[in-house]
Amino acid sequence: MGIQTLAHVVTCSESIKSLVEEITLLTKGKLEVLINSVGGGHYQPLLHLDIDKAKQLFDVNVWGFVATTQAFLPLLLANAEPGKKGRKSVVVNNTSISSVLRTPYHSAYPASKVAMAMFNDIQRVELEPLVIKVVGP
Questions:
Q1: Which Gene3D superfamilies match (predicted)?
Q2: What is the CATH number of the domain that holds 43?
Q3: Is 22 inside any structural domain?
Q4: Alpha-helical runs (H) found in the chain
Q5: Active site residues
Q6: Do the domain assignments include residue 15?
Q7: How confident is the model at residue 97 (pLDDT cuts 50, 70, 90)?
Q8: Most Cβ neighbours (<10 Å): which of 62, 82, 101, 113?
Q9: pLDDT digits (tens, 9 = 90+) for 3-59
């Protein structure tokens, strides 16, 4: 079938559900690779940080990424077939160099990417026994 790029709104559970349904039909219920590449940001120094905007940023960069991965786990598990040698599913999480850089006047975005990077590490540990490889920083 090849590669298809499909977009959705990561902060909308209905959008995620609709995308899962579409992918389920296209792939007959199995997904080999999920690539999470999500991001939004704004520059504000800590002194003037708008907490509501920062929360929206975390909704996109952290919770949207987690919700999308959770929604696709059944398809990834269906593909992985634990016990079959060499058969794996892969989740690729594209975070940002901002998860390791300290950039002045840009506090909320890197903080959200650090959270995403930590989720990436935890996913790697939790999904490995299920034969799902997690790749990312």
A1: NAD(P)-binding Rossmann-like Domain (3.40.50.720)
A2: 3.40.50.720
A3: no
A4: 13-27, 51-58, 65-80, 108-127
A5: 109, 113
A6: no
A7: low
A8: 113
A9: 778 888 888 999 999 999 999 999 999 999 999 887 777 778 888 889 999 999 999
**What's the rounded Cα separation, in Å, for the pair 57 and 67?**
15
Whole-number pLDDT of residue 56? 93
The pLDDT value given to residue 100: 64
- Contact between 49 and 105 under an 8 Å Cβ cutoff? The reply is no
Instruction: Please say if the pLDDT value at position 116 is more than 60.
Output: yes
Please give the radius of gyration of the chain, using alpha carbons only, rounded to the nearest integer.
Answer: 16
Within a domain: 90: yes
Q: Do strands 89-94 and 132-135 pair parallel, antiparallel, or not at all (unpaired)? A: parallel
Contacts 24+ apart (CB under 8 A), 101-104: 104/45
> How many domains does one find in the chain?
1
Which range of residues forms the domain containing residue 38? 30-135
At 84, give phi and psi (nearest 5°).
-85, 120
90 three-class SS = strand
Whole-number pLDDT of residue 99: 66
| pLDDT on residue 96 | 74
